[in-house]
Structure prediction request, 278 residues.
Amino acid sequence: MPSSDTNGTSGEEFTARMLDGAAREHAGAVLREHGMLRLARLGGRDDVLLAASRLMSSLWKHRDADPDSLTVIRDTGRHDGRPGFAGLGREALALHTECAQHPIPPRLLLLACARAGNTGGESLLVDGQAVLADLAVHHPAAIEALSAERAAYFGGSSGLFAPVFRQLPGERWQLRLRQDDLARFSPDAEVHLPALRQAIDRNTRQVRLAPGQGVVLDNHRFLHGRTAFSGERLILRALGEPHPALGLGPAFPAPWSTSRLAAQLTLDMRRCRPTVSW
Prediction:
């Protein structure tokens, strides 16, 4: 079951107007360590744009974005059941990274609550570093299968093959995942999906953002989703590349020693012990 955090997220809070100079550098340190940071006292669209402009060097123009590059996430009443448009309904939204079908997805994701709705609508957050550590302990063979270059295919006719976990130089990793009709997996990877989903479930946090609260996520590290909701829930979303002052390196550091993981894989094979829990 997801853990609950009624304050939105744990850790320090940053306002849009304080994200400059030394405070912005400190925000970068929080992002580097935790993969996320909290925003508070967002008075409206202008504050969200200010926060985005101080954390991002450039904003992405998403398919559903308005001219100012912010996307309004709400129930439109006309997107139910359409692959790739689940965020614009009121049903639960499966955990995913943003724009998984793009060769290089945007690094930062900002979600700001303008209206919370009546019931439900909790944000679901999962640290990919924790999922990777979980798999290393319980199902190390899953990491090998899910990090293959053609482990998954994301998107429609113009999508791409990519690993769920991509290993980068310097023992750093990048997470890419979606769990809808626009994701398909190789036979080798599909065998390990139950183990992946169990690890995700064990590390899911449930967060209810109040109006004026927001969260910034490292989109190469964090999964996000939401529970179903009723009422007029409205979230403002910005996507973009990190400002150089944040000092973000590639994706996130491995939560283990690579040599130790290799030794565990060898031990599992010697024991002929199954590594997938069904």
The CA atoms of residues 17 and 51 lie 7 Å apart. The two ends are 17 Å apart (CA to CA).
